[in-house]
Amino acid sequence: MKTPQQDLRITTKKTNYYPGRPIVRFADQIVDGLFVVLMLLLLLVAIYIKMDSDSVYQGADPKRWIQYKPDFPEDVVSFEDLQKKNPDVKGWITVYGTNIDYPVLFSPEDNNYYLDHNSLKEPESSGSIFLDYRNNPDLTDFNNILHGHHMAEHKMFGDLDLFAKEDFFQKHEFGNLFYNGKDNGLQIIATILTDGYDANIYNTGIKTDEEKVKLINYIYQKAVLIRGVDLSNKEQSERERQLLQQGVTSPLTPRDTLIVFSTCNLTETNGRYIVVAKLLDHTVPNPYEETELKIRNNSEHIDTFTLFNRYGALPLWIWLAILILLIIVTFILYRLSRRRDRKITQRRNSQKETDAHDEHED
Question: What's the pTM value of the predicted model, to 2 decimals?
Fold first, then answer.
């Protein structure tokens, strides 16, 4: 015969049994498993994005093409070899003191092809430096426009924004353009901030002296920096007076050949960085030749870096280690949070059992 105490235990045990508890535990395990799977998927996506990003920047690295540069010391392959592989290669552009050191391409059909194809006509999202399709590939036009992507890590035309800084602009005046089989010096004259709809800057059909003077005057009006002119006073009449007092005629004349560098300015809607240069009838030595293809770490360049630009080039294994560590920490925090929730639930259930026991005793 059962005592009253035994009856109480049996009653209490039956009262505190929850048929849905195994289901809750099973659901809890599923949630944990889904969390792990999600973290692994995020890791795989991050690995893919990082590898794809590295591939883009490797494709845009001038070191990849330097072997083809005219007069490159190591005579392994030549510029002519590159032209045989792709007749659209028309020249080579170098801006001293920057990482701009690339073949110049030309597609007569449109400006779209070399936005996402390299110098060997291979699909590549970094594209190429290319001459506007409306220009004559022999550079016989007055206004010749070179296009290129504005990329991080000093790739393609990623250094053009540096010319919007006065100190950098004043210290970096020259470059070189190889075309028609010979080197030609470049003198950088002006920096302009405009948009992609600027009909004056992007006008390649300029023929008459009147049209050329109109463009030159427009460059003076729009320039944020221009060589030989003080632009501190924005009044045009004052600008003209200063020119006369200094005895300075325009650095640009209708007899010049303009080379206009154009790239995106992501700080403005459809914005563009424009650097205007002119061809010289002589070459200019490169004072930066020893460090020509290195990412420069002096203050002139560092102040243009974003955090991603500065640390984005870390080796892939470091990024993977960081991602794995973050996932592990996140999972540990998640498990601790789940364990805390379980303890709270158990405490509440225990309290309910105690309350039920007390009520039964009453």
Answer: 0.66
